[in-house]
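Notes from the 1:1 (GR / supervisor)

We went over the backlog. Supervisor wanted to see one worked example end to end before approving the batch request, so GR pasted a single chain during the call. The sequence is below; no edits were made to it. Supervisor asked that the structure be written out right there so they could see what the output format looks like.
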Amino acid sequence: MFRNIAVLTVLLTMLTLAATSCDDTPQQNRSVVSVTSINENVAPLLSDVVYNDGTGISYVPDYVQVVMDNRPYSEMILTAPGHPYGDFQVTSYRVEWTRTDGGSPALPTYQADMTMVIPSGKLNASDILVVTVNNKTNPPLNALAGTAQTISMNAKITFYGHEVGVERETEVITNLGVLFGDVINEP
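Structure output shown during the call:
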């Protein structure tokens, strides 16, 4: 009799644990996503606010490459080959600026959509726009044109996404130092 109760108790405990492990809560993500490299790990990003190629001035936006890693939360999580669960899809990102030189103002926040899928256990890379032409043609950056002055800022970049098959949004945050100035590139 006690043996049957013990077996029944073990079975009920296992069923309870199995049901709990399928719970779709934020604590139960299958993936740990991180930024492994931004701007090829070269900091700060040197941003030329005005470019002069001899035919006139132009404003060139700054793109950087971001490499993201998607590793399984646990080696106990197994997915069949070709199965999408565990893959992570980045859907957008936001760039927030703060001055690191004590000055004011900083650049306005910039947000953009993007699509990048990072397979489980893999790396993936994408170029993202960090400094827009609008940033360079408005204060405080436009005041740097033709001067030797520089402005130092930090870009806090937040990537938004979710595991494939799960709509729960996840944030991945990284930072990039940026030094703005007018580089002498006139011919």
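Supervisor's comment: The chain is about 15% helix and 45% strand.
Batch request approved.
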